[in-house]
Design a protein that fits this description.
This protein is mainly α. The protein has three domains: 1-182 and 541-565, Serine Threonine Protein Phosphatase 5, Tetratricopeptide repeat, CATH 1.25.40.390; 303-443, no CATH class; 469-540, no CATH class. The chain is 34% helix and 6% strand. The chain contains 17 helices and 14 strands. The protein has helices spanning 37-40, 44-61, 65-71, 91-97, 105-128, 140-165, 186-200, 219-231, 233-237, 242-253, 308-312, 346-351, 454-467, 471-482, 500-510, 517-523, 550-555; strands at residues 9-11, 14-16, 77-78, 168-169, 183-184, 280-284, 325-326, 363-364, 370-371, 374-375, 380-381, 385-386, 430-431, 449-453. A two-stranded antiparallel ribbon has the order 1-2. Helix 8 (219-231) packs antiparallel against helix 10 and helix 13 packs antiparallel against helix 15 (500-510). The two termini are 39 Å apart. The model is unreliable at 1-35 (pLDDT under 50). InterPro entries: SusD-like_N (IPR033985), SusD_RagB_dom (IPR012944), TPR-like_helical_dom_sf (IPR011990).
């Protein structure tokens, strides 16, 4: 929803009009119209439009460089050079090998995506604090609810900024904000986020009120953000917050902030009606005819081969483009890798539990139903046809990386190279966590993006228990989620087998492709020390934080580059 209002979007390190990044020396504001905050708000609808603007931008931001920075630098997903496709000047190679430099474009885009959202939230908060709610048919508590939700939305952006960049400015003003605000340390940003969430919570609503849905921040959603913050608190501050994480996580599980429950069907949290799911704590709304950012090329639309839409019987968006797939678990001769760190090989880790229902080949069944979560092998569709590459070759998708051409099962290439620079479209299993239903189905591309699921809270509390030595308690919590993936009585459920390695593996299975793997690796001290496919250990911990992009630094000389760059 566009806000028809003059917005000077101030972002630390850059002055923005719209979303275009540039540097300038004259920062005086020049009004080009007469619609400013003093006369913009005429009706209740104007307030709602302003309130929703940062939500809309937040939804857009999930498929920006922020997603790639989380997933492509970790051990599960990859964007290799597929015979010239996705070479992109070596950007994805450097992201994979942790050899990025401050000149990378994705660093500027990630910063911009987050701080534009923060600026939008600040603008609306500052405006709302000066308004008389009665003039717009609102009560004071209703306006305070809007302000509280905007503070949580701002905290959501700041958690991501803290995670990626660490040393960032804390900006809570829009009008009269300093052009060059100072940076704060990660510990200071952590304290700010914690304070914002705790102060906002009393004024938030709960799911189930007529006007409060999972697409707005509720007490449970804010509590979940606190749980997320505390789980990673040692990374940010050097201090452990597992007791706080477990306490607030148990409050959510026990229904303190409304009733939530783990779904019994594996795909329910991602299905077309997941806004009504008992597992959804917060989600960005999606529909085929309006916005559906997680269904775009920056995220899930390009987690499939070029002509996979033929196999899906979905022809509303044209062809796909194999940008993201899973890193290989095997070499070109189908031999298992054995990385000493135990990292990588995501599909193999699913296969370690052979009765996992998710392992089935993805197939649309009609009537808004599907089975399976992965694309692999031959993708046959209608009259013996098979999905082909953009070069017209039948694909046989495998859990390996190389140049396989038209080789089928049991056939291996003479060329044994397997690297980020040496892949084709057969390389790497593809994943479809969110469904792409048939063109003829009523609810195609309608799934909301589930930013926070109750499963995250169960896993977070389980990790706290594990770190406190309560292995049985941790297994019980995780099995509450895992049991939906296996038949009744399955030996795949944990029963005394949970180790630290298995716990990290399980985080990877449950949250594959959900934009958090890098954070989890850092918390387990594996991000810089670990080895995975075509990736050696970093040799330094400075890559736990990304550098601040050179364009941001050039625009704001008061900012100091992160250590090591």
């Amino acid at each position: 929803m566009k806000v028809i209002k003059k917005l000077k979007l101030y972002v630390p390190g850059v002055f923005l009009l719209g979303f275009t990044l540039f540097s300038c020396t004259n920062l005086d504001e020049v009004p080009y119209d007469k619609i400013v905050s003093e006369n913009f708000y005429q009706t209740k609808e104007d307030i709602i439009r302003s309130f929703l603007r940062t939500y809309e931008h937040g939804y857009w931001s999930i498929q920006s460089s922020v997603y790639q920075m989380q997933e492509l630098s970790a051990d599960q997903l990859m964007t290799p050079n597929r015979e010239g496709h996705w070479a992109d000047g070596g950007t994805y190679l450097r992201m994979h090998k942790h050899t990025w430099t401050p000149t990378e474009g994705f660093l500027n885009e990630g910063w911009e995506a987050l701080f534009v959202g923060i600026g939008l939230a600040n603008n609306s908060i500052e405006d709302f604090e000066t308004l008389d709610p009665a003039r717009f048919g609102l009560t004071a508590s209703e306006l305070n609810l809007f302000i509280a939700e905007l503070r949580v939305m701002r905290a959501w952006y700041y958690i991501k900024a803290l995670d990626l960049y660490g040393n960032v400015p804390i900006v809570t003003k829009f009008k009269g904000a300093p052009i060059n605000p100072p940076q704060s340390s990660p510990a200071e940003v952590f304290a700010f986020i914690e304070k914002e969430l705790l102060e906002a919570m009393p004024n938030l609503g709960v799911k189930g009120n007529p006007s409060i849905t999972v697409n707005r921040w509720t007490k449970a959603g804010a509590a979940a953000l606190l749980c997320r913050l505390y789980l990673n608190g040692e990374t940010y501050t050097g201090n452990k917050y597992y007791d706080k994480c477990a306490a607030i996580g148990n409050d959510i599980i026990n229904g303190k902030y409304a009733s939530y429950a783990i779904e019994g069907r594996w795909d329910a949290p991602f299905d077309w009606n997941n806004d009504l799911s008992s597992e959804t704590l917060f989600a960005f709304p999606s529909s085929f005819g309006r916005t559906h950012w997680h269904y775009e090329g920056g995220m899930y639309w390009w987690t499939m081969p070029y002509n996979a839409p033929q196999y899906l019987e979905f022809d509303d968006k044209g062809t796909a483009n194999p940008r993201f797939s899973m890193q290989p678990g095997r070499d070109v001769d189908n031999n298992l890798y054995n990385f000493p760190s135990g990292l990588g090989q995501p599909f193999v880790k699913f296969q370690n539990y052979a009765d996992d229902v998710r392992l089935g080949l993805y197939k649309n069944l009609g009537d808004n139903k599907r089975k399976g979560m992965f694309l692999y092998g031959y993708l046959d569709y209608g009259d013996g046809k098979r999905v082909q590459s953009d070069k017209g070759k039948d694909l046989y998708i495998r859990d390996a990386v190389g140049w396989f051409g038209t080789l089928g099962p049991g056939q291996y290439p003479a060329d044994k190279e397997s690297s980020m620079l040496h892949a084709d479209q057969n390389s790497g299993v593809y994943y479809l966590k969110y469904p792409f239903y048939k063109t003829t189905d009523d609810h195609k591309m309608e799934s909301d993006y589930a930013e926070i699921r109750l499963a995250e809270i169960y896993y977070s509390v389980a990790e706290c228990k594990f770190r406190a030595g309560d292995i049985s308690g941790a297994e019980q919590l995780i099995n509450t989620v895992r049991k939906r993936y296996y038949p009744s009585g399955s030996p795949s459920l944990y029963n005394g087998e949970l180790t630290e390695k298995e716990l990290l593996d399980e985080w990877g299975r449950e949250f594959l492709g959900e934009g958090r793997r890098r954070t989890d690796l850092i918390r387990f001290n594996k991000f810089t020390t670990g080895v995975w496919w075509d990736k050696e250990a970093d040799g330094s911990d400075h890559t736990k934080l990304y550098p601040i992009g050179s364009q941001i630094l050039n625009a704001s000389p008061q900012l100091k580059q992160n250590p090591g760059y």
